[in-house]
Amino acid sequence: MQKHNQKEHLYKLLVIGDLGVGKTSIIKRYVHQNFSPHYRATIGVDFALKVLNWDAETVVRLQLWDIAGQERFGNMTRVYYREAMGAFIVFDVTRPATFEAVTKWKEDLDSKLVLPNGKPVPTVLLANKCDQGIDVLMNNGIKMDQFCKENGFVGWFETSAKENININEASRCLVKHIIASESDPVQSIEPDIIKPHLNSSKIVSCSACFKS
Amino acid sequence: LVLNSLVKPGSKPPTTPVKLKKVSTFQEFESNTSDAWDLGDDDDELLAIAAENLNTDVVMETAHKVIQNHSKLQEQHKFQEEHLQEEKQEEFAQLTSIAYGDNRLVKSVSEGHTSSSSDNVSENSSMQRSQSLPQTSTPPLVGGMAECTTSVTPVLTEREASRLDKFKQLLAGPNTDLDKLRKLSWSGIPKRVRPIAWKLLSGYLPANVDRRESTLQRKRKEYFAFVEQYYDSRNDENHQDTYRQIHIDIPRMSPEVLRLQPKVTEIFERILFIWAIRHPASGYVQGINDLVTPFFIVFVCEYIEEEEVENFDVSSLPEEVLQNIEADSYWCMSKLLDGIQDNYTFAQPGIQKKVKMLEELVSRIDEQVHRHLDQHEVKYLQFAFRWMNNLLMREVPLRCTIRLWDTYQSEPEGFSHFHLYVCAAFLVRWRKEILEEKDFQ
């Protein structure tokens, strides 16, 4: 299958956020294309692998680390975060407390993990369960853009694991930023600095992502 | 800090000559513990069930050897009972110290050898068993499981019946000899007497028969006084996080059917919330919810005739009976958790320690598996965390957990130390599959 001139990347991605926000469901949807309302609570960490044909020359293997949401496991996260290249932080739009926890997760992540160039890992914020309609937080997209800028997220998406909304898009957005950060080990990637060649041929409809 | 102290170089794996000695000790331990899965039953039917999945002549042969040896042993047993028991305890103590992987283990192993070789009779018997049970044999395990499944044939075999009689005699009193009960329960408790046996083994019920009923009444009253006192506070600001976590987790447990019954959900929420409130050092930790289930299921069995508990409609039981089950489950779970408290306190030091101990143990008893995992960058914490946190309940069917807990409750520190060896046995049992696996991504 693999062409001779193809490059292969392996990226470890973290999926973190409060318990019950749908981390496991998002991963199952993304990797196995299915959904069940009955996934068991994740204990410690679970794993999944997703292979993306990124473009004609590149295959991307995503090693997804599904990390238990309970705070009690918090101290374990240092072990789990090690050598990750990117992260999703997930919250549940129907439970405001899970959104309030987003900054805690981001701080935890940034304090325990930096890229080899010293920068924080690219992180995408996922507002999950957007199919449930109780849309208290999402009404104001501009506010969310602002929130992401202030807290160092490279983008945000309303997602639904149940209805399969925006999960592929969110992943492409994250991978794009990982590739960008990899090819530019010295310079930091500020939201307003865009390397044109990185965005050229990618078809990522990443409306919420302010780097494209 | 805990992590740092765990990975400090002081706890390096030992050198080769020591390792060899340890391997033999683990095998001794393994053989000594192998009868946990033995029903003391040479029923061919059971063997057939046991071999169903493996279906090789080797397995059958091994199983027959085990049974033959076991029957022989049982004859000798009467004379040696006391010796064996002593030896077992001694060896167990040795193994526990081995597992700490520090320098004193070398000493304790050699000491252990001197003392057990002074006892010719018991050493002899332990060797017999050791020969009859190579590491790869599984039939005793599966055979043992058959007993705790909802049994296919409700009619008891002669041996089952006599075993049940032995339990009944012990339980009848006037004072139940707990040491004898432990010894008998170690290789599995018949379903009919399991509820009372568990209550005795966990220390919830007194050995004295006359005091049991009043104890039950008092403890049940005490539990519902807690409910009265605390349960309304579940929506208070300082408790609502705890309650919400429990509330989210209950529908996400197994077994599939029971957990979805509203009545069961209510009961589990109360048990877990009360426990969390009364144990602020740990509070509610994901995984503790699983630990209620075996008690609940076993205690439900006390009141029903049905074989299929998992499909049983709990709400059909009278309210009073349900309350008894709830209170009994609460107290027995509390007793269990008392023994593994540091698994669930901040940063879960008990689990980190046990995962580290498992790693050291496996590095000695199965270097190949250990190296394989290491080469493929599989960290023990990645898979064994859950094994410790949920006591393997996510890894084996509920009926096997229930059977396993017969033994855990018969061991001193069964849920902590003995569990560690079960986890190691798990890895060794699946070594072929593990070694064949080249892609852990």
TrEMBL record, chain A:
A GO cellular component annotation in the UniProt record: trans-Golgi network
TM region(s), chain numbering: none
CDD domains on file: Rab32_Rab38
Places the protein is found: Endomembrane system; Membrane
Principal cellular location given in the protein's record: membrane
Membrane-related topology note: Lipid-anchor
Alphabetized UniProt keyword annotations: GTP-binding, Lipoprotein, Membrane, Nucleotide-binding, Prenylation
Signal peptide range: none
Keyword RNA-binding: no
Matching Pfam families: Ras
The keyword Lipoprotein appears for this protein: yes
MF (Gene Ontology): GTP binding; GTPase activity
Entries under InterPro entries matching the protein: P-loop_NTPase, Rab29/Rab38/Rab32, Small_GTP-bd, Small_GTPase
Biological process according to GO: endosome to lysosome transport; phagosome-lysosome fusion
The family this protein is said to belong to: Belongs to the small GTPase superfamily. Rab family.
Record's function text: The small GTPases Rab are key regulators in vesicle trafficking.
PANTHER family xrefs: RAB FAMILY, RAS-RELATED PROTEIN RAB
Listed name of the protein: Ras-related protein Rab
Organism: Furnarius figulus
Encoding gene (name): Rab38
TrEMBL record, chain B:
InterPro entries found in the cross-reference section: Rab-GAP-TBC_dom, Rab-GAP_TBC_sf
Keyword Transport tagged: no
GO molecular function, one term: 14-3-3 protein binding
Region spans: Disordered: 109-146
Keywords associated with the record: GTPase activation, Phosphoprotein
Sequence ranges of Low complexity compositional bias: 115-126
Polar residues composition-biased segments: 127-139
Gene3D superfamilies: putative rabgap domain of human tbc1 domain family member 14 like domains (1.10.8.270), Ypt/Rab-GAP domain of gyp1p, domain 1 (1.10.10.750), Ypt/Rab-GAP domain of gyp1p, domain 3 (1.10.472.80)
Protein's UniProt keywords contain Phosphoprotein: yes
Domain Rab-GAP TBC residue range list: 188-412
Pfam family, one: RabGAP-TBC
Domain of life, source organism: Eukaryota
PANTHER family: TBC1 DOMAIN FAMILY MEMBER 22A (PTHR22957:SF255), TBC1 DOMAIN FAMILY MEMBER GTPASE-ACTIVATING PROTEIN (PTHR22957)
Function of the molecule: May act as a GTPase-activating protein for Rab family protein(s).
Protein name per its UniProtKB record: TB22A protein
